[in-house]
């Protein structure tokens, strides 16, 4: 009878381990938040913390500018292409940022907003259609 109980314990442990693996939050595809979505481009963030950093984000189609109002003053923005190469390093020093769409060809980019003082950074992804 001792062997029967241990086999059941092993089966139960494996079953519970399987549930914890399939419900892992890191595999949740709904963790992306869209902050700008237009015919020309789309900007998303991957976390709630990054989402809360942006108080306002919009794309001005007339001036073709991406505009951000951020919760904290941004020191600089590092922009990387889809190969991971830095293509721009933009000094900012403000909580209001405007970036011309003309800087970007069709493709995927990553923005890293560096915050002064606490070495914090926030990330967003740009897809130009």
Whole-number count of domains? 1
Order of helices and strands: HEEHEEEEE
How many beta strands in the DSSP annotation?
7
Secondary-structure-derived class: alpha+beta
Q: Which CATH-level-2 architecture?
A: Sandwich
Quote the distance from N terminus to C terminus: 65 Å
- What percent strand? over 45%
Q: Major sheet: size, sense and barrel closure?
A: 7 strands, antiparallel
Q: Which fold does the CATH topology refer to? A: Immunoglobulin-like
Mean pLDDT comes to: 85
Helix content: 10-25%
Alpha carbon gyration radius: 21 Å
The global form is globular
CATH level 1 name? Mainly Beta
Helical element count? 2
Q: Unreliable runs, pLDDT <50, ≥5 residues? A: 19-29
What can you tell me about this protein's structure?
The chain is of the alpha+beta class. It has one domain (31-128): Immunoglobulin-like. It has 2 helices and 7 strands; from the N terminus they run H-E-E-H-E-E-E-E-E. The chain has helices at 2-22, 48-53, and strands spanning 33-37, 41-45, 54-60, 65-81, 86-100, 107-115, 121-128. Strands 1, 2, 3, 4, 5, 6 and 7 form a 7-stranded antiparallel sheet that branches. The radius of gyration is 21 Å and the shape is globular.
């Amino acid at each position: 009878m001792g062997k029967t109980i241990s086999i059941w314990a092993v089966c139960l442990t494996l079953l519970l381990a399987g549930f914890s693996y399939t419900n892992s939050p890191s595999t949740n595809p709904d963790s992306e938040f869209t902050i700008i979505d237009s015919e020309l481009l789309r900007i998303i963030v991957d976390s709630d913390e990054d989402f809360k950093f942006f108080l306002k984000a919009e794309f001005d189609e007339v001036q073709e500018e991406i505009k951000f109002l951020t919760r904290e003053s941004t020191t600089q923005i590092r922009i990387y292409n889809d190969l991971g190469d830095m293509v721009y390093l933009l000094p900012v020093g403000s909580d209001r940022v405007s970036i011309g769409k003309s800087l970007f060809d069709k493709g995927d980019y990553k923005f890293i907003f560096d915050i002064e003082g606490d070495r914090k950074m926030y990330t967003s992804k740009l897809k130009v259609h």
